[in-house]
Amino acid sequence: MSQADSIHTLSLKGIHDGVHTGKFSVMEATDAYLDRIERFNPELNAYITVTRESAQAQAVDIDNRIRKGELTGAMAGVPYSLKDLFCSEGVRTTCASNMLSNFISPYDAHVAAKLKAAGGVLLGKNNMDEFAMGSSNETSAFGNVCNPWDTTKVPGGSSGGGAATIAARLAPMTLGTDTGGSIRQPASFCNITGIKPTYGRISRYGMIAFASSLDQCGPMAPSAEDCAITMNIIAGLDSRDSTSVDLPVPDYTANLNGSLEGLRIGLPKEFFAEGLDAQVGAVIDRAIKEFQAKGAIIKEVTLPNSHLAVPVYYVVAPAECSSNLSRFDGVRFGHRCENPKDLMDLYERSRWEGFGDEVKRRIMIGTYALSAGYYDAYYLKAQQVRRLIKQDFEAAFKDVDVIMGPSCPTTAFGIGAKKDDPIAMYLEDLYTIPVSLAGLPGMTFPIGFAADGLPVGMQLVGNYFEEARMLNIAHQYQQWTDWHTQVPAQFA
Amino acid sequence: MAISEAEVKKVARLARLAVPDDRLEAYTQNLSNILNLVDQLSAVDTTGVEPMAHPLDMMQRLREDVVTETSHREKYQSVAPEVEDGLYLVPKVLE
């Protein structure tokens, strides 16, 4: 086997070390991934746009700068992909919508600029649910994505293209976004690691908005260490996002090897109640026992309002989306209908034609909830219950350091199985949404396979800004297990 | 709570979405289902609970009132559907 045939098996650190010790060039690493994309993407549809030419041009430049000693950082020479809602200058940025199918972004999102400056090589833009609204990647205007572990199954969503990309090793790292579970649920379905940091930890500048009080960007990769390395590059204050938090950014890799002795893990009893698939529950139980064997203390906690999270979310998120998506008016960018007879016709037809059904449903629900006479009954009420959900977590964190439980109630479901039933789809996210509403950091890491042969992820929730501790815990688990290194045979 | 077809039409107008008549029934059904899901909230006692507008209960950060952006008119207009002389074109608004 030549070197190029095994580059995709390396971690971020492995690729970094390879290009910096001259084992292979940035161009060779880039080509290795581009070739894999060319070979496997037709089957998976994980990428909407592949930036082959600009990636190769970047690779030449970065090879030069590494040789001159100008670039030495942890991402220098490392390829990556982006969910197609991060604006990337000069590259098509579609949000998987017909509304933006020809939109070439005039600027870079904050995180895209950070990775570029760090010497990363952008391979392309990943498929997703349209405007990040969905849990199966089936609302994409560019076709659904297949789960590499079973191509008749969904990869989850909304960052489904990114999750499939990492699972099939079509990039060593990607950035996703998580509004109600859009990093954690697909990570669980695809056997990868992904973290949604605390709300405000990473700038949302240039990340096309869905629900502004919930949206957060985060890395998805095979391992917790890969995620930690990426967090070091992208976390921190950015004046262009008014909700970006001005708190020091720790070195997320510094404490990866910290001990788990005495770690207090809370298990919310509501996450293990009716609704959790027994096969998934069995895998979760086994992993919890492994943590116990390593010295962790397991305690039951309660999140008594968590069953209200899905209803709260389907008021708050649509309300915010109806406001955010009003910018798509057919005037300044995006789809414009043919021959509008007047301004109203221009707005109404451009928007009807440009958006898919799930996006339009949510815009309408949000418009209704915010309309005169309904505001108190829906939006205000939801904001009040949202606080009750947050208070449940605050109470739980008085007794425990972290919370663990399933990321999803089931393993990956079949393509088409829930497509025509929005409510069934919404309930997929019942364990991830409470965390999003509270603004807490949550992550998923692989812990094995259910009896049906499909991956199961553990959800790990930390207190505010405890990402370093969470990455440490997942990393330790990945030292004594190898689930995260497993790749479906046909993509090995 | 069910929503009527007439209400869906009104909401679609407010949201600037030209929902065709043959899609109205499906939208009405789906939106009613979502509102039924959401209606669980009405039974929750939230007396005295402060609405949560921000996950971290933070105030908006303020900055100095100085110019931080430069003009990108050409760049931004390059992605617009129709422009002329630096202006965005729309159908005639005033007769």
TrEMBL record, chain A:
<dbReference type="InterPro" id="IPR004412">
    <property type="entry name" value="GatA"/>
</dbReference>
<keyword id="KW-0808">Transferase</keyword>
<feature type="active site" description="Charge relay system">
    <location>
        <position position="158"/>
    </location>
</feature>
<dbReference type="InterPro" id="IPR020556">
    <property type="entry name" value="Amidase_CS"/>
</dbReference>
<feature type="active site" description="Acyl-ester intermediate">
    <location>
        <position position="182"/>
    </location>
</feature>
<comment type="subunit">
    <text>Heterotrimer of A, B and C subunits.</text>
</comment>
<dbReference type="InterPro" id="IPR036928">
    <property type="entry name" value="AS_sf"/>
</dbReference>
<dbReference type="InterPro" id="IPR000120">
    <property type="entry name" value="Amidase"/>
</dbReference>
<feature type="domain" description="Amidase">
    <location>
        <begin position="28"/>
        <end position="471"/>
    </location>
</feature>
<keyword id="KW-0648">Protein biosynthesis</keyword>
<dbReference type="GO" id="GO:0050567">
    <property type="term" value="F:glutaminyl-tRNA synthase (glutamine-hydrolyzing) activity"/>
</dbReference>
<comment type="similarity">
    <text>Belongs to the amidase family. GatA subfamily.</text>
</comment>
<keyword id="KW-0436">Ligase</keyword>
<dbReference type="InterPro" id="IPR023631">
    <property type="entry name" value="Amidase_dom"/>
</dbReference>
<keyword id="KW-0067">ATP-binding</keyword>
<feature type="active site" description="Charge relay system">
    <location>
        <position position="83"/>
    </location>
</feature>
<comment type="function">
    <text>Allows the formation of correctly charged Gln-tRNA(Gln) through the transamidation of misacylated Glu-tRNA(Gln) in organisms which lack glutaminyl-tRNA synthetase. The reaction takes place in the presence of glutamine and ATP through an activated gamma-phospho-Glu-tRNA(Gln).</text>
</comment>
<dbReference type="GO" id="GO:0016740">
    <property type="term" value="F:transferase activity"/>
</dbReference>
<dbReference type="Pfam" id="PF01425">
    <property type="entry name" value="Amidase"/>
</dbReference>
<dbReference type="GO" id="GO:0006412">
    <property type="term" value="P:translation"/>
</dbReference>
<protein>
    <recommendedName>
        <fullName>Glutamyl-tRNA(Gln) amidotransferase subunit A</fullName>
        <ecNumber>6.3.5.7</ecNumber>
    </recommendedName>
</protein>
<dbReference type="GO" id="GO:0030956">
    <property type="term" value="C:glutamyl-tRNA(Gln) amidotransferase complex"/>
</dbReference>
From TrEMBL, chain B:
<comment type="function">
    <text>Allows the formation of correctly charged Asn-tRNA(Asn) or Gln-tRNA(Gln) through the transamidation of misacylated Asp-tRNA(Asn) or Glu-tRNA(Gln) in organisms which lack either or both of asparaginyl-tRNA or glutaminyl-tRNA synthetases. The reaction takes place in the presence of glutamine and ATP through an activated phospho-Asp-tRNA(Asn) or phospho-Glu-tRNA(Gln).</text>
</comment>
<dbReference type="GO" id="GO:0050567">
    <property type="term" value="F:glutaminyl-tRNA synthase (glutamine-hydrolyzing) activity"/>
</dbReference>
<dbReference type="GO" id="GO:0005524">
    <property type="term" value="F:ATP binding"/>
</dbReference>
<dbReference type="GO" id="GO:0070681">
    <property type="term" value="P:glutaminyl-tRNAGln biosynthesis via transamidation"/>
</dbReference>
<dbReference type="InterPro" id="IPR036113">
    <property type="entry name" value="Asp/Glu-ADT_sf_sub_c"/>
</dbReference>
<dbReference type="InterPro" id="IPR003837">
    <property type="entry name" value="GatC"/>
</dbReference>
<dbReference type="GO" id="GO:0006412">
    <property type="term" value="P:translation"/>
</dbReference>
<keyword id="KW-0808">Transferase</keyword>
<keyword id="KW-0547">Nucleotide-binding</keyword>
<keyword id="KW-0067">ATP-binding</keyword>
<keyword id="KW-0436">Ligase</keyword>
<keyword id="KW-0648">Protein biosynthesis</keyword>
<dbReference type="GO" id="GO:0016740">
    <property type="term" value="F:transferase activity"/>
</dbReference>
<comment type="subunit">
    <text>Heterotrimer of A, B and C subunits.</text>
</comment>
<dbReference type="GO" id="GO:0006450">
    <property type="term" value="P:regulation of translational fidelity"/>
</dbReference>
<comment type="similarity">
    <text>Belongs to the GatC family.</text>
</comment>
<protein>
    <recommendedName>
        <fullName>Aspartyl/glutamyl-tRNA(Asn/Gln) amidotransferase subunit C</fullName>
        <ecNumber>6.3.5.-</ecNumber>
    </recommendedName>
</protein>
<dbReference type="Pfam" id="PF02686">
    <property type="entry name" value="GatC"/>
</dbReference>
